[in-house]
Amino acid sequence: MARLPFARNQITQVFGPRNFARDPLHRGVDFGSGVWAGLAVPVAAAGTVSRAGQTAAINFWKEVDHGGGWSTRYHMLGSAAGPGVGSRVSEGQTIGYIGPRFGVSTGVHLHFEVHNRGASRPGYGTAVDPLTHIDLISSAGVQPPQEEDIHMILIQSPGRGAALIGPGFFRPLRNAEEIEQAAPLAQRRLNGNDRQFDVWRALVVGG
After folding, report:
1. How confident is the model at residue 140 (pLDDT cuts 50, 70, 90)?
2. Among 42, 47, 90, 159, which residue's Cβ finds the most Cβ atoms within 10 Å?
């Protein structure tokens, strides 16, 4: 099944009505606790990037089609970096990077939406509550890149942690167990400072 981009305890705004005159019906959830501009945003499930754009209210945004009528949207991205329209993505792959406070936002955050084409209601369109519907999205739509097809590198820095990267592929490694499991897949290991980590990440995700 699919997963939320970040932990539930990082949510600062839930789905549904809210006291915000410019946008009273919140069509997703906001992850604003413990996030910062430039933080990589992982895809909730495998799929294909179906739409992308930029608006004066939400800055850059992308949508991923997961099949079966399900899609996810990622708003408040800081740039168009990462997979573009037509790109296949795997669960956990970076879809983009959180941007600074922008447009109607009151602070740095990721706005995340789940859509079901089979459900529609006034004010919300096809948007449904991510917290109660994320488990209904299949994560098997697109398989992750196979290690024999690409050169994988394990990168690490003191402030950013560790990640497994390859051409167009970025997978954060969140703990020692994940690092240990990823190590056999990597042809090289690179250790550097946080700036070097960001450059390596930009190179593989941006192509």
Report:
1. low
2. 47
